[in-house]
Amino acid sequence: MFDLGSKRNANRILHGIRDYTHTKRIGEDVYYLNKNGAELVGGEAIIRRNSPLEHIVMRNDIYIFYHYPRDWKAEVKTRWTEEGKEYSVVSDARFKYHDLLYFLEVDNTQKMIENRRKIEKYMKLFRIIEKKRIGEPVLLWYTLSDMRKKQLEAWCREDGVKCEVLVKR
After folding, report:
1. What is the CB neighbour count within 10 angstroms for residue 130?
2. Distance separating alpha carbons of residues 139 and 144, to the nearest angstrom
3. How far apart are CA 119 and CA 140, in angstroms?
4. Rounded Cα–Cα distance for residues 62 and 142 (Å)
5. How does pLDDT run across 38-95, given as a tens digit for each residue?
6. Distance in angstroms (rounded) separating the CA atoms of residues 40 and 48
7. Could you tell me which of 124, 126, 158 has the C-alpha nearest to residue 140?
8. What is the DSSP letter of 83?
9. Which ranges constitute the DSSP H helices of the chain?
């Protein structure tokens, strides 16, 4: 991604900026900026040691996989009104890719009943998006198991929600 050459060289560079980072092991070392590092680069968001780091890393996997969408928005709330009733859904990210409007849901600790409720909300939202011809929406799931993938696909198919489901390997 950054043309650093070898893993050894990347580790050398990361070691050189250790005063500006924290490290947490999630299968492999994950480096993130500490308060000094965030101030140095003019950033505001600070990841705390108790932050849902695996969830953030999985969201970033999708950002990289879809080639760094320019209109990427993380943790975005979408509101709409249908038949006088107000609804909202918070997506882990929203972005456009090949003229499709993607709503990302990272499923690493969510209970399946919550996922089911989200699909029902997206069904209502997608109906509005299609009616207003805003774009063609896709619900993108990123999950941890093939079993969850099959269930998510079945529910989306049942509700007529266009979806893609990726499994972290």
Report:
1. 13
2. 16
3. 11
4. 8
5. 899 988 767 777 789 899 999 999 999 999 999 999 999 999 998 899 999 999 999 9
6. 17
7. 126
8. T
9. 7-16, 35-41, 53-65, 112-131, 146-159
